[in-house]
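Researcher: Last one for today. Full complex below.
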Amino acid sequence: MIRFLVNRLLGMAVVLFLVCLFTFVIFFVLSPDPAVQICGKNCSVEAIDQIRANLGLDQPFWAQFWTFISGLFAGRTYGTGANMIECAAPCLGYSFQSSQPVTDMILQRLPVSATVAIGAAVLWLLAGVGGGLISAVREGRFADRFITGLSLTGMSIPNYVLGLSLQFLLVVTLGWLPFPQAVPFGEDPAQWFANFLMPWIVLSIGAAAVYTRLTRANVIETLQENYVRTARAKGLSPGLVWRRHALRPALTPIVTIFGMDFAGLLGGALITETVFGLNGVGKLAADSITKNDQPVIMGVTLLAAFLVVVGNMVVDLLYTTIDPRVRVGSTA
Amino acid sequence: MTFTSTELEVEGATGGEPGGEPATASPPASGRRLARTFLRDRVAVACCVYILLIVLMALTAPLLVKLSGYGPLEFDQSAVDPNLGGLPLGWGGGIGAEHWFGVEPGSGRDIFARIVYGARVSMTIALLATALTSTLGIVFGLVAGYFGGRVDMLISRVMEFLMAFPALIFMIAVLSALPAENRQYLLVLVISFFGWPYLARIVRGQTMSIKEREFVESAKASGATSAQIIFKEILPNLTSTIIVMTTLAVPGYVGTEAGLSFLGVGVVPPTPSWGQMIASSVPWYAVDPAYFLFPGTFLFLLVLSFTVLGDRIRKIAESGEGRV
Amino acid sequence: MAKRTTFAAVAAAAAALLLTACTGGGTDDIGGSAADTPSTGGTVHMLQNADFSYLDPARGWDGGVNAFYRLIYRGLTMQAAGDAEDPNAIVPDMAEGLGTASDDGLTWTYTLKDGLKFDNGDPITSAEVAFGISRAWDPEIGIGSPYLKQTIEAPEDYLGPYQSGEHPGIETPDEKTVVFHLKAPFPEFDNVVAQVNAAPFPVGTGAGDEFLTDVIASGPYTLDSYTPGSSIQLARNEHWDRGTDEVRKAYPDAWEFEIGLDPATIDERLMAGQGSDVNAIAGKIQPATLARLQAPEFQDRLLTAPAMCVTYMGMNTTKAPFDQLEVRQAINYAIDRKSLQTASGGTQFADITTTIIPTEVNGHKDFDLYPSEGHAGDTETAQELLAQAGLEDGFEFTLDIRSQPLMQAQAESIQQALAKINVDVHLNVIDTSTFYETIGTPSQQHDAAITGWCPDWTSTASTMVPPLVDGRLITEKGNGNIAQINDPAINARIDEIKAMTDLDAANAAWGDFDEQVMELAPMAPLLLEKSLVLPGANIAGFHPSSSMTDLTIVGLRDPSQG
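Model: Here's the assembly. Have a good evening.
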């Protein structure tokens, strides 16, 4: 077990390091000079050089990369003398646009993304697993076909199309929901809920569809397994057979995929947040891309990769505990 | 083990759904029987018809536009109201004999013509990306699965890395930094770069199991080279898997292209694209819903048709196995 | 030298133009309820998409943030109130009067008023003024307005107060007097000390990142709370003495800036007017919103902010065929400005222009050298001119544009209009963040580009036309003369007008100069993009402007509402 953990942690570190390096290389090669951008239009060559020196952009690639990595763990400083600015670990640098520390910017927006992710996750788990179970139980009948059709539709509708359609229908035409407007939960819970309802629905529908299909397929498959048949033959009550023998193995894959999906979402739902104007990490990413704010893009990319990698590992660990069939340390 | 995430944002960007992985390889089922089963399925036929219609539309775009009277780039000042922010005149965003689907606010460009030309972009990019992804996925999957060991280790790590990568953020960042020339091909490259591991993973797994079978062993014994074994013995056994996976991948790429264009890093204007049309309709949806509904519906139906079609093909392939 | 706003604002679609409303000359918007006199008290809300660039006026310099600085910082002089007869005029702020120049024009002297204080209660004397101004020389901090550095005499190696100590070009003979020594005579120096980076600060403060998250206010408000990218709250500066300030009215007790809102969300909220939104103002509305504002209740509230910036297409005169005068003139004739106007939101959002100097900027002269019926383009004359240049079969060129919907619509309109004279336009869409770098680098720019230009001050046209056409300003990087025109007659005329000490005469001369430039057609002026704004129902004294909205005269009609 310990060896497995160490191996996984090492693998995780390698993947994250590569993500760092890859992102860094791409921006190093592709990006226009940020100093020119920061300096604006009427800017002297000396001023540009000064900014480059301040940001450490005059250093060679490896030096810059090293500063970035060590900044993550030990912090770093910008500028010299009286104008020195300290950036404490984990330092992701300063935004070229707003001069705010990237770490703070991300932390500030994380709660919004988390709210979106948690609400959507609850919705899609309920709808997906519920729908899948109903579908499996009524296999081949109307309810099954209806749910299957619905999930195919749900998988096919691009989330921005769905988001805009919902907004048009529920807000503009029917007036059932107020126009989305961010308010803290404590101030006006109803408005808060109304504000997040549409993003939750939009984000959950695609996943709910996939989960429905997954649950359905797994449950149907498990019900045909020998040990379930044996349990039934032994005369165990149907409820007990379901709970103990069919559901648990059937839902194991759901747990695994859920871990990944949820981790991915925590890192920001770029399109949904943009469509609904939610100030989460995803919107931060979209905004900084349009402004070519490299440190912020780097920070968000790293965070997202980190969450996915950690999610992957947690899932691995869970998997070994939930499903006795999986041997620790196996690779599939 | 690594799991595929659902890619909630750009739906289907993973190329295929993670849930139902196609069953193990089987010898190709009888073609005629499959076709018959397929033709009896009315939904599948309807999807096929719609897809063919879009393909036809894309192919005959210049002709259709001649018929409707307005090109995709032509401004029509008489169709919009300059005093109301450029709102199209008339019902439903200017729908009428002049403009079948109405006009774009501001410029007065014909929406029908833009939908027709937009179909070209969607189809070209989705099909090219599917072709490239499939090639990469099959080759790397076969190589990793067949040779195993270090090669497998290396390819698997690369796949793991690519799948852990926040692809959407990255695609946008890279596309916005790259020059706009040849954007269509860049889109294909960038989409494929992140897309191939999903197919490769499955191909790898199946190759690993097939290579243990007797017919492969006997081919090896008779002195066939690795290349011969891979392409003559193993690949044919993967056909149904590959067909299913690629059909399921197409809608993902249609959606991804539209999504990237929606975010403003897709094809470059004045080339019309459905995603771009949807993006520019956002501020107008309250006063001119038709401007949003046309591209939105066309896009949704295309993605749906491909998804349903892929689903049906998989079912037929699976049941075909049982029967043959 | 245009403000950086030019780029940012025009780029960020609705976002920036929101804040940047200007002029609002007295007569423009009367009739709107917002012209009423506000009462004291309450909180005014500002809804905006983009965050302010910097809290530190030595760093930030664009229309949006300049309007914000006016609430918390003071200068020696300032632009007149937004409801003044000439809102472009420069009037005294902390100084008793405008500056007095020596006979040779090289020394300018200002005298401070009594009773000036910072928000911590410390008095503002000449030393604090000199210190605040000297921060502009700090290479890391002084990245805002360049005018102080361009005009005031300083040694080459002077690097601001933190590195080099006191500024040798600014004298403070006593607590009330500030004397500036200039590099060369500059008749418009009052505009220079009205720049936002001429704000006073206590000696020794503001090094490093100190002013990135905090302020030391000299104006009527001070920072209460600041969450970057999301909100800014201002509270009254108790030490600001109303008696020392003739311009700022400072009616509300507090300001709240809500940042990071979607432009469509802002419009919806202003229309709905729920809760505190009746006390809200914002930048320009989206063209799509206009159709929903036809009800009288909205029409009464709707205000227009006249344009202070010109949108134009610069033609690179160093590249064929734009090196030929006839070709550039033909393009000017052929462009369908009517269709451009509609594509930019229609008559409410854009005026057609044939001059470089916008109507609202002092010095504007009305002329149209390349007329056409209804401004829809004169293809016949254009084709004749092309034939004269030997290009009757047309040609093709590459047009640099920014990847932003409005710009793209404008470029597509030009593409369509020029197709009629067989000119094939390739659109080169450049990411917003690199657009200005590309077109400002002669080695990278293509044949033409669509961009915007705003004057750095609106009291004269001296910062409007010359930076676009002065051949001596062409540089390898950050070049503003994208036509790269270098005409001796034009260059000479610029120097003559800039030397005029009678500013009215200079303004008249700038109008004629505009016409002289347009005869050479280095560019095609296209549009003056106005803003339509919809203030909350309880807002009064709001005079939006597209260069800088005067927030210091805005207030609530009934502070108990909302």
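The first helix of chain C runs from residue 5 to 11. Chain C has 19 helices and 21 strands.
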